[in-house]
Write a structure and sequence with these properties.
- The chain has 222 residues and is mainly alpha-helical.
- It has 2 domains: 150 residues, Ribonuclease III domain (Ribonuclease iii, N-terminal Endonuclease Domain, Chain A), CATH 1.10.1520.10; 67 residues, Double Stranded RNA Binding Domain.
- It is 59% helix and 11% strand.
- The chain has 12 helices and 3 strands.
- It has a 3-stranded antiparallel β-sheet with strand order 1-2-3, covered by helices on one side.
- Helix 2 packs antiparallel against helix 8 and helix 4 crosses helix 9.
- The chain starts with a helix and ends with a helix.
């Protein structure tokens, strides 16, 4: 926990809040009531994150209409960006997972990592208030130039690249899907003129397509 606190640049007054934020439902279920899952914290963290991002956009984008504000906020808090935050924190290494989820690769599952980020934000909010969580959100999302570039629509960006080559065709194909109904993981491949140029994983088919398009862009730009 001390290592994770150092990465967050925040020291908890009540470290049990952070431990709670890292407790997946699979671990809580196997504990037979000894522990509570991070789902309620995830719910709160989602709202706190949305509010901080909305407040930032409202104050800094004075000429942006409501529709664009909504789309920009959605892009900034999307699962892919939260997974990037989880990777930066190496959050998967700290998760408390049930044995089954552990064996199924839960530590690397994007949806679990993204949910844990939201839960950790809620834990910081409850422990230190809005100022503390706002600083973390700014550092890892709003002020991070690398993440900011990832809020674009990768499918549209890929389409624009491919259109420079007349006659080229983009096809997305579902490769696999796994996991329980409430936590499906989809793997999509994208091909250009029959050649696979990218593969991506996501909690929905649309998210997986976006990640496949991102991988394709990186491949085509090499």
């Amino acid at each position: 926990m001390k290592t994770l606190e150092a990465k967050l640049e925040y020291t908890f007054q009540d470290i049990s809040l952070l431990e709670h934020a890292l407790t997946h439902s699979s671990y809580a279920n196997e504990s037979h009531g000894r522990y509570t899952s991070n789902e309620r914290l995830e719910f709160l963290g989602d709202s706190v994150l949305g509010m901080v991002v909305a407040d930032h956009l409202f104050r800094t984008c004075g000429d942006m209409p409501e529709g664009d504000l909504t789309r920009t906020r959605a892009a900034l808090v999307r699962e892919e960006n939260l997974v990037e935050v989880a990777h930066k924190l190496d959050l998967g290494a700290y998760l408390r997972l049930g044995k089954g989820e552990e064996l199924c690769g839960g530590r690397q599952r994007p949806s679990i990592q993204a949910d844990a980020v939201e839960a950790v934000l809620a834990a910081v909010y409850l422990d230190g208030g809005i100022g503390s969580v706002r600083r973390i959100i700014h550092r890892f999302i709003l002020d991070n130039a690398v993440l900011a570039t990832k809020t674009q629509d990768y499918k549209t960006a890929l389409q624009e690249i491919v259109q420079r080559r007349p006659g080229s065709e983009i096809v997305y194909e579902l490769v696999s899907e796994s996991g329980p109904d409430h936590c499906r993981v989809f793997v999509m491949e994208v091909s250009v003129n029959g050649e696979v140029v990218g593969r991506g994983e996501g909690h929905s088919k649309k998210a997986a397509e976006q990640m496949a398009a991102k991988a394709a862009i990186e491949q085509l730009n090499r």
